[in-house]
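Sanity check

After download, print the first record. It should look like this:
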Amino acid sequence: MSPEQPGLMSQQGSLGAAGNHAPSNLGDILERVLDKGLVIAGDIRVNLLDIELLTIKLRLIIASLETAKEVGIDWWEHDPWLSGRDDRGLVEENKELRARIAELEKAGEERMLEGGDRD
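Expected structure tokens:
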């Protein structure tokens, strides 16, 4: 091999990369997908004698957090399980509603007993 050949090879390699003729590596592809975003959607239906038994709708979005926020997707910020916030307001409201249900059930039982004594 002559010393000119390695230079020629590296020169062709750089020309190929500059002209986007060289294959992209996984990192470049992942960077492009996360930058632009990727949506995969599909439906699975199970029918038996023209009766739909099961429908599964799949929606998959692959994007960076910045890209997702740009298109209005930010559910992870409001989900208490994912955001790490302990939403005490919901816990307290749940306790109050359970106490109110218990009161209503007790009042209903008392009415039934009062109505049963009249017969």
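If your output differs, re-run the checksum step. Summary of this record's structure: The longest strand covers residues 51-62.
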